[in-house]
Amino acid sequence: MALPEAEPAGPLLSVVVPTRNEAANVVLLTRRLGQALAGIGYEICFVDDSDDSTPAALEQLAAEHPGVVRYRLRTGAERAGGLSTAVISGLRMAGGRYVCVMDADLQHPPETIPAMLEETGQGADLVVASRYVAGGSRGGLEGVGRRLVSRAATAVARLLFSEARRSSDPLAGFFLCRRVLLDGIEFRPVGFKILLELLVCVPGLEVRDVPLRFERRHAGQSKATMGQGLLYLRHLRSLFFEVEGSARRWKFALVGGSGLAVFLPLLAVLSGPGHLPAVLAFLPAFAVSMGWNASLNRLWTFADLRHGRDEALAYLRRALLSGAVMFAVFAALLATRLPLLAAGAIAAVAAMVCNASINRGAVQRSPQAWSRLAVDGGVQAALSRLTGEVGADRAYLLPVAGAGTAIPAELLARVVGLRRPALWTEGASHRPQRRSNIDQTSTMLLPVVAGERVLAVVVCQRHAPVGFGPEALATATVAVEGLVAVLAQAALGERLPERGSQVAQPSES
Ligand SMILES: Nc1nc2c(ncn2[C@@H]2O[C@H](COP(=O)(O)OP(=O)(O)OP(=O)(O)O)[C@@H](O)[C@H]2O)c(=O)[nH]1
Ligand SMILES: [Mg+2]
After folding, report:
1. pLDDT tens for residues 7-29?
2. Are 54 and 23 in contact (CB under 8 A)?
3. CA 53 → CA 56, 84, 94, 270, distances in Å?
4. pTM of the model
5. Which of 83, 97, 175, 387 is surrounded by the most beta carbons within 10 Å?
C-alpha cells in the first residue's frame, strides 16, 4: 500500500534497563554493553527508582555517553507498580527499531544480545534468552529454594497458558523484539513478567529461544521478595480472567464442570418421588444445563470470537451430538440398575469428553484480541477496537487508490478528495420494505488525514437491521484521528498491512 516513505529514525536497538539501587552495577553494565554492541547503533534507557547513588551514576554516564545513555528518574507516586511500570515506561522511552529488556545486575550477560539480534534476521519477532534450553544455565539463581520456586512458577505459567509454551522460559526478564510489536499494547501494570504478557496477548508472534548463561548478581542486593511472588499470582489471575480467549481449554473445562453442577441437581429434583421417570427427566435437565454451558462459553470461553448465526448453529449441532452420546450412556447405565445420580454423572463426563474432542479446533484457538496487532504496529489493534466501539462487523484499511474493491471508486475518490468521512446504507432490495428485521448493509468511509495528505481510508461495515447512525460516525471519526500516528509509525516498520487487507474480523471456526 502506498504510504509515505520514511527513514526509520533512532538507533537500531534500545536496551531497556529498570534499576533500583544498582549504583555498583550500572557503570560496568554500560561498559560491557558498549563492548558487546560495538558497531551497532544502540541506546540504553534506564528507568530508575533508586534511593542510593544510582541517579548520580546515571547522570554521569549520560554525560559521558551522549545520545547513548538516557535515563528517567522516578519519584514518589511515579514509582507505583515498581518493576512492572518501570519496564513499561522504558519501552515507551525506547526509540530503536528493536528493544531489549534486561536486568542491571549483570545476571543477563550483554554479550548474548548480538545472538538475539541475529535471530530477528532469521524471521523471529520475539527472542527470549532462556535458561532452559541446551547451552543455557541458571547457575546464578541463588539457593535451591529459589530455583524450585522459579521452576514451579514457569511450570504453572506453561500449564495454564498454552500460549506461554512457545518459549521454554516464559518468565525470563531478558528478551528482545521489534519495537512496533509493542506499540498500541496496553500492558496491565499488575505484572512484572512482561514477556509472559506478550506471549499470552500476542499469540501470532514468531518466538525463538537463545541459550542464556544466567550469571550471579554482580553487586548490590536482590529485590526479589515474597511480595513479588504474590504479584506474580495476581498477574496470572489477571491474564486468565481479563484477557478474552486466554487459557481457553481451562475455561472450556470449567464451564463443562459447572454444567454438571446444574444438570445433576435438576435431574434429582425432576425424577424425585411422584415426578418424571428418569429417562424423561433427563431431557429438561440436559436442556437447561446445555443452555447454561452455551451462555457461559459464549460470554467467557469464546468472548473474543465472533458469534454469528452460523457459529451458533455449529455450536448447537455439536452440543446436541454430545447430548445424544450422553443420553445413550445414561440410558444404558440405568438399565444396569446403577443409581440415578451415578449414571447421570458418568454420562455427563462422557459427554464432556465427547464435547471437548469435537470442539477441539475452537478450544485450541489462540486469543484473537491482539493476535494480528503484531504485524503492523498497532493498526490492527486500533481497528479491532473500532469495530467494537461502533458495533461494526468488520473494519479494514484501504489504500487511497482502492480500485477493484467492493467500495465504489467514485465514493472513495470523493472521500479522499474532500478529506471528509461518508456514511451510507443500502437496503436489502429495491422494494420498499416495511419489516424492521431485514438486514441492510451500512458502510462508513473515514479518511486517515495527516496534514494535507490522506494516508489511507478506514472502512467500517455492518450488516444488520439498523445501520450506523451519526453517533457511530462521530465515534469512528475520533478513533481514526488516533490512527494517524499509528499509521505513520507503520509506514516506518517493514510489514505494512496488505492492500485492502481485511483485519478486525474475528470468527470462530
Ligand atoms: N525501576 C525499578 N527497577 C527495579 C525495581 N525492582 C527491581 N528492579 C530492577 O529489576 C531488575 C531485576 O531485579 P532483581 O533484584 O535483580 O531481581 P531478580 O533478578 O529476580 O533477583 P536476583 O536473582 O536475586 O538478582 C534489576 O535491574 C533491579 O534493579 C523497582 O521497583 N523499580
Ligand atoms: Mg537479578
Report:
1. 345 789 999 999 999 999 999 99
2. yes
3. 5, 22, 24, 73
4. 0.70
5. 175
Q: State the distance from the centre of ligand 1 to the C-alpha of 240, rounded, in angstroms.
A: 25
Instruction: Identify which ligand lies nearest to the alpha carbon of 18.
Output: 1
Residue entry with cell 545476571: 107
Ligand 1 pocket, CB under 6 A = 18-20, 22, 47-49, 82-83, 86, 103-105, 107, 141, 217, 222-224
Which mutation among 30, 105, 195, 218 tests ligand 1's pocket best, with the greatest number of atoms within 8 A of CB?
Answer: 105
Give the ligand 1 atom nearest the CA of 217: 25
Q: Output the residue whose Cα is nearest ligand 1's atom 12.
A: 103
* C-alpha of residue 119 to centroid of ligand 2, in Å: 24
**Which neighbouring-strand residues pair with 210?**
129
Question: What's the chain's length in residues?
Answer: 509
- Residue nearest (by alpha carbon) to ligand 1 atom 11: 103
Q: Are 486 and 184 in contact (CB under 8 A)?
A: yes
Domain spans of the chain?
13-242, 251-363, 373-492
3.30.565.10, 3.90.550.10, 3.40.640.10, 3.30.870.10: CATH of 13-242: 3.90.550.10
- Given a contact cutoff of 8 angstroms between Cβ atoms, the answer to whether 157 and 170 are in contact is yes
As given in the structure block, the three cell numbers for residue 448 are 486517515
Looking at domain 373-492, which of 1.25.40.10, 3.30.465.10, 3.10.310.50, 3.30.450.40 is its CATH number? 3.30.450.40
Between the CA of residue 159 and those of 97, 240, 255, 302, what are the distances in Å?
A: 33, 12, 18, 19
